[in-house]
Task: inverse folding
């Protein structure tokens, strides 16, 4: 498992490097003069995350180069994420071919230019798309389902406490969220879900089992503060 990104020359970049080293992740890092990207997050009393503001830093004008394209070309599974401030980076990733399973996290689509249009643009360049929506987003979910069926793609919608649903087959495949004693922090729950889903899906190709694996990962994540366990003394 590896990470491709750009880091700045600020103290925050050292924190990111230590975290990557601690978890033993392979990296393809580009250091650029400037600030490392930062997402500021607050919480509701329920533990639900609130995105306060995002400082794009050096990722704003970063595009993958030859070294990064080589890493992408050798990947068995590629996971890309898109939001407005890094769309240029995202486009450069999606234009880099790879032979394995390709997935994209589109979030709730409110933070990307053109909304669902970006999904339509890249439907032929990924196999699994992830979306974090609400069960009340009936029209959007229906539109995504029609897209998935028309282009033979698998789109997975997480719905918080309402579980998740996979779109693209003849019938929707739904999976409930796992109950937890207390929700501490939902930060990283969607990423954890996607990681669990993709690991199972890559191994077995079974959608229902993959949804369940994602639900187990997400349930563990929401019971702790932060996206992953971390204690840093320096």
Result:
């Amino acid at each position: 498992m590896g990470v491709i990104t750009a880091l700045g020359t600020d103290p925050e970049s050292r924190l990111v490097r230590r975290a990557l080293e601690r978890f033993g992740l392979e990296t393809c890092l580009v250091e650029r003069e400037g600030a490392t990207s930062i997402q500021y997050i607050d919480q509701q009393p329920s533990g639900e995350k609130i995105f306060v503001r995002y400082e794009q830093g050096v990722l704003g004008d970063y595009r993958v180069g030859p070294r990064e394209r080589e890493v992408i070309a050798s990947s068995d599974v590629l996971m890309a994420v898109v939001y407005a401030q890094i769309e240029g980076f995202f486009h450069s990733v999606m234009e880099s071919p790879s032979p394995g399973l390709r997935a994209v996290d589109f979030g709730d689509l409110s933070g990307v230019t053109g909304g669902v249009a970006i999904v339509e643009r890249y439907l032929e360049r990924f196999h699994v798309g992830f979306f974090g929506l609400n069960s009340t987003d009936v029209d959007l979910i229906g539109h995504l389902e029609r897209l998935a069926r028309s282009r033979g793609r698998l789109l997975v919608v997480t719905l918080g406490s309402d579980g998740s649903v996979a779109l693209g087959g003849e019938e929707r495949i739904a999976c409930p969220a796992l109950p937890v004693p207390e929700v501490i922090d939902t930060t990283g729950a969607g990423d954890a879900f996607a990681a669990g889903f993709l690991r199972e899906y890559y191994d077995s190709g079974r959608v229902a089992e993959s949804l369940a694996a994602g639900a187990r990962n997400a349930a563990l994540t929401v019971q702790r503060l932060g996206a992953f366990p971390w204690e840093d003394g320096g």
About this structure: Residues 69 and 96 are 6 Å apart (CA to CA). The chain has a mean pLDDT of 94. The first strand starts at residue 2 and ends at 7.
